[in-house]
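DM from R.C. (forwarded with permission)

"hey, sorry to bug you on a friday — could you get me a structure for this? deadline for the figure draft is monday and I only need the backbone to look sensible"
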Amino acid sequence: EVQLVESGGGLVQPGGSLRLSCAASGFNFTTNSNSWVRQAPGKGLEWVASIYNPDGSTTYASRVQGRFTISRDSAKTTLYLQMNNLQPEDTAVYYCTTGWVTIYGSRGQGTQVTVSS
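My reply, with the result:
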């Protein structure tokens, strides 16, 4: 059974940073690609970033390009999302998912990120 547990969200001021983590189990983490998606209040799921296994190639939504970095630690089977220069429009519940550039993979319970002064 695929299990994904996100953590690291919180309240941050505009311009601040957060690092999200996602502990993965129940599938082959080293051969599966993974993504981060988010859901802002009252809106649908939005794809944010993906990392391709096994070569580690990454791709980002234009809205976060240059501010967010997706990475992974295969030994810890953990996915990360470093978020810098956060803006109010980044406020959302963030989920890690299986799959490449998709919003339809298996998801965890999510972690809330709120950007507000």
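R.C.: lifesaver. The longest strand covers residues 18-25.
me: no worries. The mean pLDDT is 94.
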